[in-house]
Design goal:
Number of strands of chain B: 12
Largest sheet of chain A: 6 strands, mixed
Structural class of chain A: alpha/beta
Strand order of the largest sheet of chain B: 4-5-10-7-9-8
Number of helices of chain B: 13
Shape of chain A: globular
Distance between the termini of chain A: 58 Å
Helix content of chain A: 25-40%
Number of domains of chain B: 2
Strand order of the largest sheet of chain A: 6-7-8-3-9-10
CATH topology of chain A: Rossmann fold
Helix content of chain B: 55-70%
Number of strands of chain A: 10
Order of helices and strands of chain A: EEEHEEHEHHHEHEHEEH
Strand content of chain A: 25-35%
Radius of gyration of chain B: 33 Å
Oligomer: heterodimer
Number of domains of chain A: 1
Largest interface: A-B, 26 and 23 residues
Chain lengths: ~250, ~400
């Protein structure tokens, strides 16, 4: 099976005025289907650039990039948009849901831009199914403001899944959530991963990275560490542990 | 992307900030409403003038006696007295395509009936006059050629004069004294209303022209002829035939000016409506400017909206919206804004023009053309002024847009 993502000698240079900023320098990485990768690093390490490139929001200025067998370097703006629409699901730190639209309408959003388009009834059907997958089947007509942070992130995940992408790309998905909700969201990811979804996640929290199967650490635009996670956390177990601790705190005199 | 979904999206976006949407629309609403109201006033004025001129009669050519000026003062049409009885006979015999012909002698005279004593205008005409100039008869009948030949003392009376003299009583058969001569009323004319210059056309008494020359003016020349062409297509031909005939009869040499005026009804109409058309264009132009200002308001608010929704644009692009999809979304939003504003404006414009016609008593005429024009220009304004903000939105970099707060 070919790699889902194959970045070779990838570099990205920004021209900010007269100074050239090398955000990422000669990085090569392969991600196979079914992987669950955390990309870690401090700010300025190049992980955001890495993320934008993997999400096909931006193209490398040097090197080669194949996504699911497609040479991304040769694609124009519209072709990149179509590629994102079909093959990539995005989950953001700030959820980025449309505030005035219901959960279902938010999930339908990627289907609006499908080419060829699909009928409205099928859109509703698929959105409802995606919402069920993240455990919010009853909340379809709620607006984001009527949902908790964790629920909003679940809606965002459902939106990312609705076009059945090859890759789920999450940018600090737990950054705005408390510990318990974070673990719950990681549970959703782990479940999706077990069902075969390839997931790449950017985070700076070590605890969260422990839920992934592979950790890539970046510093100053290079990969400094790329190792499988030994004995990754399981969300269900971690949740039980957390609840037990909370119960102990509550029982304490 | 499906257009209907985009329109629904646009409506939702506009509902998001109702007050702002309404204020933005207000520019378009006022613009469209004023275009429609102004044009309806202009058209109303034009229609009124045309109706007045139509009351001259169908396919009428007016031949008026030349004017003379003494010491720099124009004495008015007909004062030169160049139109004679011989001219009248010649026109009746030598010119083809005439279906009606009447001379006109005019004067003012004292009219007495019982204890009523009024001053009114007396027109001396032939029996053709009523038909040529579209007069109808409410009761009684026209006088005859025989009455003209014998200079009989018979009269037709206008509605206003009849009401003044007889009140509600029957006019037919009454004997009035015009300059002390007793005239018998044989016909009561139907009402025509006011003329183009505001005079009351119904304040009139018509008598045979022979009687008028003998008893009223004492002259031997006519003020004017009303000639009716048999077919509307023959009007220009008839006009030039009449000109040739009169020039020949009056022995006017080549290169000299006519000693009479000849005008077709169409020329009179054109002259009178030119002024009202100028007014209409002027009012329309002023209203158009306010529509333009409304359009700039739309552009302003769309620019604000694009900035506010940068993040949303970023999300849409991330999930696969092409630049064109974003462009279309904002363009449709601007279009919906101006079309809804336009629709409200049309309703308001119709209401305003009706209010004006009720309160001010002006004739207003709402034309479908002006509604179509105002509505489609509001659509055009939406597209024109919405394009720049929409283009700006479509060219955003998704990464920058997602990072925007």
């Amino acid at each position: 099976m070919p790699a889902l993502i194959e970045l070779t000698d990838f570099s990205k240079t920004y021209n900010s005025g007269e100074v050239q900023v090398h955000a990422v320098k000669n990085v090569s990485i392969k991600i196979e289907p079914g992987e669950f990768v955390a990309i870690m690093g401090a700010s300025g390490s190049g992980k955001s650039t890495m993320m934008n490139t993997l999400g096909c929001l931006d193209r490398p200025t040097g090197g080669k990039f194949h996504f699911d067998g497609v040479d991304v370097m040769g694609l124009n703006r519209d072709e990149l948009a179509d590629l994102r629409n079909k093959k990539i699901g995005f989950v953001f730190q700030g959820f980025n849901l449309l505030a005035r639209s219901t959960a279902l309408e938010n999930i339908e959003l990627p289907m609006l831009y499908m080419r060829p388009s699909i009928p409205g009834s099928e859109q509703v059907e698929r959105a409802t199914k995606a919402l069920g997958k993240v455990g919010l089947a009853e909340r379809g007509d709620h607006r984001p403001s009527q949902l908790s942070g964790g629920q909003q992130q679940r809606v965002a995940i459902a939106r990312a899944l609705v076009n059945e992408p090859r890759l789920l790309l999450a940018d600090e998905p737990t950054g705005n959530l408390d510990t318990q909700t974070s673990i719950e969201i990681m549970g959703v990811f782990q479940e999706l991963n077990r069902a075969g979804m390839t997931i790449v996640m950017v985070t700076h929290e070590l605890d969260i990275a422990r839920f992934c199967k592979r950790n890539v650490v970046m510093r100053d635009g290079r990969i400094v560490n790329d190792n499988p996670v030994v004995d990754p956390f399981d969300a269900t177990t971690q949740l039980q542990k957390l609840r037990a601790e909370q119960a102990a705190v509550n029982l304490a005199p | 992307m499906i257009i209907i979904a985009t329109i629904r999206m646009a409506l939702r976006a506009l509902r998001r900030n109702t007050l702002r949407t309404l204020l933005t629309m207000l520019g378009i609403i006022i613009g469209v409403a004023s275009v429609i109201a102004m044009i309806s006033i202009g058209n109303g004025a034009r229609a009124q003038i045309e109706a007045q001129i139509a009351s001259l009669g169908q396919n009428v050519i007016l031949v008026m006696s030349g004017n003379i000026s003494r010491g720099g003062f124009g004495m008015g049409f007909g004062s030169a007295g160049t139109l004679t009885k011989d001219d009248l006979e010649a026109m009746g015999k030598d010119v083809e395509g005439v279906s009606g012909l009447s001379p006109e002698v005019r004067g003012n005279a004292q009219v007495v009936f019982g204890n009523q004593n009024i001053q009114t205008s007396i027109i001396g005409v032939s029996p053709d006059y009523a038909a040529v100039r579209s007069w109808t008869f409410t009761s009684g009948e026209n006088f005859t050629e025989q009455d003209v030949r014998s200079a009989n003392k018979v009269a037709l009376i206008g509605k206003t004069t009849a009401t003044t003299l007889f009140g509600d009583g029957d006019a037919i058969g009454q004997i009035i004294r015009v300059k002390n001569a007793p005239f018998t009323i044989v016909g009561l004319l139907g009402p025509k209303g006011s003329s183009a210059n505001g005079g009351d056309q119904d304040d009139v008494i018509m008598i045979p022209w022979t009687s008028a020359m003998k008893r009223i003016t004492g002259g031997t020349t006519f003020r004017a002829f009303s000639v009716q062409a048999a077919e509307s297509g023959k009007v220009p031909q008839l006009q030039s035939d009449l000109t040739d005939l009169l020039r020949q009869r009056h022995r006017i040499q080549e290169g000299r000016d006519d000693d009479f005026f000849i005008r077709t009804q169409q020329e009179i109409t054109e002259r009178a409506t030119a002024t009202s058309d100028t007014m209409t264009s002027l009012l329309g132009a002023i209203a158009g400017v306010s529509l333009l200002v409304g359009g700039i308001g739309v552009m302003n608010i769309m620019l604000v909206s694009v900035t506010e929704r940068t993040r949303e644009i970023g999300v849409r692009m991330a999930v696969g919206a092409r630049g064109r999809d974003i462009l279309l979304q904002f363009l449709i939003e601007a279009l919906v804004l101006s079309l809804v504003g336009g629709a409200i404006g049309v309703a308001l414009g119709i209401g305003t023009s009706q209010a004006i016609s009720i309160w001010k008593g002006w004739t207003t005429l709402i034309s479908t053309t002006s509604i179509f024009l105002a509505f489609s220009s509001s659509a055009a304004i939406g597209i024109f002024f919405g394009f720049y903000p929409a283009k700006k939105a479509s060219q955003l970099d998704p990464i920058e847009a997602l990072r925007f707060d």
